[in-house]
Amino acid sequence: MKLYYSPGACSLSPHIVLHEAGLPCELVLASTKTKKLEDGTDFYAINPKGSVPVLELDDGQRLTEGPAVVQYLADLVPERRLAPPAGTLERYRLMEWLNFITSELHKSFSVFFTPGMPEDAKTLFRDKLRQKLQWVDGQLAGKSFLLGEDFSVADAYLFTVARWADATQVDIAGLANLQAFRERVSARPSAQAAMKHEGLIKQA
């Protein structure tokens, strides 16, 4: 398999999941700005949507969209319990979280990475995001992870998106559960390995 990624982008989520799953995968750097690979290949030829992540399977098929990619990876190694079994209510809870993160959090954060976005619009989105993250903080009360005590692919996605609060000046001060969650996931060997590879933390 190949994972096309961009440092710190939403592709960090499947990158972490790959480490959690113990699955071998070639990592291919794709610039979300130039839409080029390191060898000059046009990234649009890989994904016409121009976005990461892209998971290329051994037979050449490609899977896009983070929530789909991480569930596919989880289902390759059910013994790792990165996603509840298909058909169970718990699996739908996982999908519920993945949908919320992608539609309500991820897309709201994307405003800050849009060139030319007016500052007043950013201020509005910061306020809205604070409200949504405050709700997430409440949902994490008394739990280590979104589904309880077991780490899931939804946690990798929430961690990835929640990291963006620092770069976008979205205030998460006082959201103690969310801050503890970020620290908890950041300390996992999978997150450490992925972030080091992407240059997000310094190598020891």
UniProtKB/TrEMBL annotation:
InterPro entries: Glutathione-S-Trfase_C-like, Glutathione-S-Trfase_C_sf, Glutathione_S-Trfase, Glutathione_S-Trfase_N, Thioredoxin-like_sf
Name of the protein this chain belongs to: Glutathione transferase GstA
Cross-referenced NCBIfam families: PRK10542.1
Annotated keywords: Transferase
EC number: 2.5.1.18
Domain of life: Bacteria
Organism: Azohydromonas caseinilytica
Keyword Repeat set for record: no
TM annotation in the entry: none
Name of encoding gene: gstA
UniProt domain GST C-terminal: residue ranges: 87-204
